[in-house]
Design goal:
Length: about 325
Amino acid sequence: MKMTSLRQAALLVLALGAAAGAAAQETTLRLVSAFAENGIYVQRLQPWIQKFNAEGKGVLQINFIGGPKAMPPFEAGNAVKTGVVDMAMSTGAFYTNVMPEADFLKLTQIPVAEQRRNGAFDAINKVWNEKANMQYLARMVENQPFHIYTNKKVDKPDLSGQKIRITPVYRDFFQALNATVITTAPGEVYTALERGVVDGYGWPIGGIFDLKWEEKTKFRIDPGFYDAEVSLVMNLPAYNKLSKAQHDYLHKQLLALEAENSFWARYTAEEVARQQKAGIETIKFDPATSKAFVDKAYQVGWASAEKQSPDIAKRFKPLFAPK
Ligand code: 173
Ligand code: 173
């Protein structure tokens, strides 16, 4: 009798130990999106998460918690910094409340694959690690320039008398174009347009149909400027806790995600056609004015970065531009 219970106890300890061992091998990462659940960025993310979980059984899993309904979009950065969640899909402009440098990523003019080769990616991570307690994991959107969408026609790059919805991405440039600017999350743009609180908004070339803004949009100003940055970021302690196998698996999947970025050039062509079909007129300038417009965007963007954080802006600038 005694022997049997001892034996049972020993078996129980062994079984518990094995269960704990298995649990330690698989980690589940909680991920939030700062962008809408039904929008193009989450649409791109979902199949990746499915594949990640299918191939990562016993190693690493991702639990998608949700988008702005689960967490206000401008809070996602802080949630990653503090470890409330492990990962976020967000953009730097949404976590300037963590560090102003986050918004500098809109100024890259080379593909993320090149950023990994030329040292930009490492330079970004040094700052993200030190200032935001984050690992910058992967850029999943590129080749998506921002545009001005407005209901008030212009014949030159001047937004005098216009109220434009912004995030930090656009603030200095649109103010330099004489706009009155109003910051809102994407989720508030439709109502702001409907009520005439704003005449227009900044947004990338793709995605305006996701929240039905085409219903309230008359004109798109060309050309675009900067490059919309949407990336995965991770709480640094959570990242550092991963085993070598987990780290290698994550890295492999992140590179696979970035390898899908050729999608965005196709998407641009589709969205331009769709906007035209929806009756959105294009406002274009002559070539010299167009060039001056884009040059001004970068000049204002870098001047603002250099004022905000001179050392980091100086470090990033040569790494963000083509050789
Ligand atoms: O504090 C904030 O929420 C903030 O600075 C912010 C960030 C992104 C867009 C708008 C405001
Ligand atoms: O909300 C925005 O206009 C914005 O800052 C942004 C950034 C990246 C992708 C899409 C929108």
